[in-house]
Amino acid sequence: MYRWCTDEVEPHDRFDYWREVRSKGLFGVTAELERERRADFYGEFSLRQLGGAGLVELKASHYKVERSTTDIAYAPSDSICVYQQLGSGGWFGGMRGSDFSIANGSFATSHTDLPYRTVPLGDGGFHLRILKIPVRNIPAQDKRMRELSPRMFNDPGLAPLLGACFADLDEVAAADDGANGAQASSSAQASLVQALAHLALIERGIVRPGSRLGQAALRTARLSQARRLIARHLQDPNLAPVMVADLLGVSVRHLHMLFEAAERSFSQTVTDERLQQSRRLMREAPDRLIADIATSCGFESLATYYRVFNAAYGMAPGDFRAQGSEGH
């Protein structure tokens, strides 16, 4: 991962550097800010290359951004962008379609080589993630992809799926489990990137939900969301396939099919999540009673917790805590 922030530049040079080197050189956009406000400018971003795409997270104080025809000619990209708004919101304008505002937690998509203007709403500045996927890396080849001016996702059913995929992409990218883990991580990254690309194209009417590519994207995204629903409800005594299927809006049979394709059943996934959560709690709260931890993670009894933990890790929870290591 590459990280950079304006703290690395002298205060009086920060906005000029951000405008000329970062905005124009890296992102291919024109940045503008009133001269009297430049001394207080702050910006930071991270960039990861994963799954054939680039994932940027950007935070910056208030300024104006434009991707003009001159910018496009100078730095063509031919990519699809999926935006996740994390800050106070933003405004997009200057497109062939209508202007729009995007709120915190919402998503938008566009092709990179179409003009637009954007500014943050409120004084909080920019905070967003941008997944930039080269068109050549998207299986659903369609000339209409190059006609996608910025537009917000309007299908409320897609928002939680997009959010789950973005969250999983962050986690998979951060994982580092050695060479074999890296290969598995690379495969997972590619799957999530393709899912996000095709969910965007489903929203824009280019990929049909019932097509092979559409179904694959929905399966990947629903599995991501199902895992997150499990993690969110570990303490719930009603955590069961029927509950998660209802929250996901699919049948119980379809839910089981999602997990079967991932080679970890629903019950195995629940147990894994509970064990991992218990390990985190033992590290974070070394004085907390193990029985309390087991209950808080949803295990029906202390005896069950000890049996399952020993079967998974070859040691008792107390021995794990004594070692103070997460590598066992």
TrEMBL record:
Transmembrane intervals: none
SUPFAM superfamilies found in the cross-reference section: Homeodomain-like (SSF46689)
GO molecular function: DNA-binding transcription factor activity; sequence-specific DNA binding
Record domain HTH araC/xylS-type: where: 224-323
Protein name (record): AraC-like DNA-binding protein
InterPro entries in UniProt: AraC_XylS_family_regulators (IPR050204), Homeodomain-like_sf (IPR009057), HTH_AraC (IPR018060), HTH_AraC-typ_CS (IPR018062)
Keyword Transcription applies: yes
